[in-house]
Write a sequence for this structure.
């Protein structure tokens, strides 16, 4: 008797298909079952509005989750930074695999680095978070840049540079890695310059919570792909985002680093930033402590740093807070 293929729900974009294909191979190895991709169009894929206008939160996720709940697919792969911070009761994040490079990168004309861009350089990004931090860095280092809101897939965005409409665009290193285009990067932005989005570089593998024996077996099988260190780091980052009551299109950056002494991971440092998109006002704080050993401790770490940021006026810098 042939084994039924597992159905993996994925967005149709080149990046989503690439990362889902990589996960499909890993799941097939872990479970011994074939995996087929089921392409699903989400609201975020068809809307032409800027993400900041449509709210960002969940626009790439809802259709995939609906397909899961209807039983049309067995599991779905998301870019973790696109996931709303509230997890639906009927769905579970069965695995968060090892994180890719979380940094943002520049693709600029003439192979320029960010600090070498000419005065008045036009830099494209659809992210208020990137705008806030790039403008703040430029202001503090005597650079003269203009951040320009853009949308579109990787080809479209890099095309703005090749076509001469923009001097540079900002993208995520992880996405370019996954589609084999990391060679086009002209500058990797240090996380000291631009903190990434909470969860950036990580994937989330989501399926139905184990209400049936088949669902429970799938949750267990997918669990083989989970990386505990990545999970605890992104849990802290997303907890900070949730405690700030900010959606994933808000100008919030967060990164949890695991600090190692040789081969032994000793501590975790969580950094957070919130700023106005023009870069004139920023709240940036960090905290370091033992690596959280439970989900609740990781959540608490994020909430504690968020409380300190709110005490320093973070709420007033975010515009509309998520309801």
């Amino acid at each position: 008797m042939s084994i039924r293929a597992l159905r993996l729900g994925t967005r149709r974009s080149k990046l989503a298909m690439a990362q889902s294909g990589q996960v499909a191979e890993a799941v097939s190895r872990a479970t011994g079952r074939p995996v087929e991709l089921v392409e699903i169009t989400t609201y975020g894929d068809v809307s032409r509005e800027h993400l900041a206008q449509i709210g960002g939160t969940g626009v790439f996720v809802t259709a995939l989750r609906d397909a899961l709940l209807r039983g049309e697919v067995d599991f779905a792969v998301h870019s973790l930074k696109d996931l709303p911070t509230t997890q639906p009761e009927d769905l579970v994040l069965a695995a968060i695999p090892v994180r890719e490079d979380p940094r943002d990168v520049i693709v600029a004309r003439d192979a320029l680095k960010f600090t070498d861009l000419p005065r008045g350089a036009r830099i494209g990004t659809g992210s208020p978070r990137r705008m806030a931090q790039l403008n703040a860095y430029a202001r503090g280092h005597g650079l003269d840049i203009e951040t320009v809101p853009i949308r579109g897939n990787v080809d479209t965005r890099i095309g703005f540079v090749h076509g001469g409409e923009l001097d540079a665009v900002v993208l995520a290193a992880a996405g370019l890695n996954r589609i084999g285009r990391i060679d086009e990067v002209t500058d990797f932005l240090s996380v000291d310059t631009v903190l990434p989005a909470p969860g950036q570089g990580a994937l989330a593998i989501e399926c139905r919570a184990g209400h049936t024996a088949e669902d429970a077996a799938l949750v267990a099988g997918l669990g083989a792909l989970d990386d505990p260190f990545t999970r605890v780091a992104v849990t802290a980052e997303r907890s900070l985002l949730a405690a700030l009551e900010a959606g994933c299109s808000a100008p919030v950056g967060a990164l949890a680093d695991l600090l190692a002494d040789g081969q032994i991971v000793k501590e975790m440092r969580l950094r957070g930033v919130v700023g106005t998109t023009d870069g004139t006002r920023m709240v940036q704080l960090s905290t370091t402590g033992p690596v959280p050993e439970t989900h609740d401790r990781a959540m608490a770490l994020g909430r504690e740093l968020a409380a300190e940021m709110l005490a320093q006026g973070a709420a007033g810098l975010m515009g509309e807070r998520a309801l």
